[in-house]
Amino acid sequence: MLGSYGLQPHTPTAELFAAELLANAQVHTKGAYALRIRYDGGRGRLRVAVWDQSPALPPGFGTEGVAVPSPEAESGRGLHLVRACADDYGGYTLRELGSAHGGKLLWAECRV
Fold it and tell me: What is the rounded CA–CA span in Å between residue 44 and residue 20?
C-alpha cells in the first residue's frame, strides 16, 4: 500500500507501529479493534492508528508519565518502541470527542 504513494522507505516504521499498536489492543483489551493508516502529503506525515473498545489510555499515551520497561522484562516494550521511533504520538478517548462507538485511538506518526 505505501509503495503506491512512493513511501517504500517508511514501510518498516509503519509496520512496527501497526504491529505494536495492534498487539497492544489484542493483549490488553476485549472486543473489536481496527487499524487505520493515513498519509498527509501536505504535512509530510504518515500516521498509523489503532482503535479499540477500551477507554483506558496506556502509560505514555495519556497524561500520566511514560512507562519504561526494565532491562530484565520479557514483554512490555512494544509501546516504548513506538514512542522511541515516532516523530509524534498520542492517544485519546473517543467518548470525550462525542463518538457513539467509544473506546480509544492510539496513533504514531513519522515524517515522510
Answer: 23
Total of domains in the chain: 1
> What is this structure's pTM?
0.87
For residue 27, what is its C-alpha cell? 493483549
Are 51 and 33 in contact, with CB atoms under 8 Å apart? Answer: yes
Burial status of residue 93 (CB atoms within 10 A of its CB: 0-12, 13-18, 19 or more): middle
What are the residues facing 37 on neighbouring strands? 48
83-107 pLDDT, tens digit per residue, is 999 999 999 998 755 556 689 999 9
Q: Where are the alpha helices (DSSP H) in 1-112?
A: 11-28, 78-85
Range of the domain at 55: 2-111
Question: Which residues, in sequence order, are bridge partners of residue 80?
Answer: none
Cβ atoms 112, 44 nearer than 8 A: yes
